[in-house]
Specification:
With 261 residues, the protein is α+β, with helices and mostly antiparallel strands. Helices cover 24% and strands 33% of the residues. Helix 1 packs parallel to helix 2.
Amino acid sequence: MTEETATRLLAPAKLTVSLRVTGVRPDGYHELNAEMVTLDLADELELDPEGSGLAVAVGQGIRADRLPEPGQNLVERALAACGRTAAVRLTKRIPLGGGLGGGSADAAAVLRWAGCADTEVAVRLGADVPFCLAGGRARVEGVGEKVTALPFEPRQYLLLLPPFGVETAQVYRAWDRDPGSDGPNALAAAALAVEPRLAAWRDVLGEWTGRAPVLAGSGSTWFVERGADGTGADIPHELRVGAETGRLVRAHTVPAGWEGD
């Protein structure tokens, strides 16, 4: 990979601000009605069309043990879906298994680079890929393929990243057994049933901020919106539950087409 031929891309995380499950299709896929926004927490990709292969570097708290096997990474699948090849250097900053759509964001970045705006291609890669392809703020419906742009609103959030991830498929299976709809995220109760440790991390963030945390998607990230006061000027880098630490990340919304500050 050379600087002359490589293209640098950012893949911003998605945050599911609210989520309702509106139905289950005969094939088992769940239909949703959700508000999603993109954040300045982002993975970085460098793509060189003159090469091939994928190299992945992981940052703090990314949970590298959850990286897909070679050939199964959404970056590789996105390249194949649009008939392109490239050498890719992927720097992961969005934690895996956190409900922040890191893999989907990476796939969407590849599709944008390849000039592919086909929603059907995007949704075959993953339910969050169509939104990540559009970016900004949107109402997302169906299994993720219906993306309706909403006016951009500058917002600030405080994210708490527990030291473990949650399997999305397990959360949906738990929801099937006991559908819950209380609060802004209909999957929260199911996620807590799958991973009871989430409760302690929710509580510690709530105690520290004085606000009610919301689960991001199927988890494991909890978040609160920061007001004009910034939810405290002196925000620590982490919070603790027993002997474990969870990283705190300040993030703000970014509009569609964002390429960095």
